[in-house]
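Justification of computing resources. Each target in the renewal requires a structure prediction run like the one illustrated here; the chain below, 118 residues long, is used simply to show the kind of job we budget for.
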Amino acid sequence: MIKGIGLDIVEIRRIDRSLNRGTRLADRILTAKERKKFDELASPRRQAEYLAGRFAAKEAMAKAAGKGIGRLSFQHIETSSTEDGAPVLHVRGYEQNQLFVSITHSMDYAAAQVIIEE
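Resulting structure tokens:
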């Protein structure tokens, strides 16, 4: 049974501008494992896309859970990838649920959708 659905979209340009001022946003959004992957990315553009996608996924998770970010921290939500590159969510407190996530990018936007299933 579906427990929640969340969707979010982020302008990559806004994330890029924030990264040009420093890493404060990345430090706030990304877990240590995500930050390691972020730091390994080859270009500032790819870093902005990655951060925008993770931001959108975490916001979508909070929406699917029916909570805002703050009640469900960015640090409680971690993304990883399967061997095939598909995104996976790990969320503290939601281990008993099946989580589905899709992250997409265009030139200007990153978007994510999350479905929580009991």
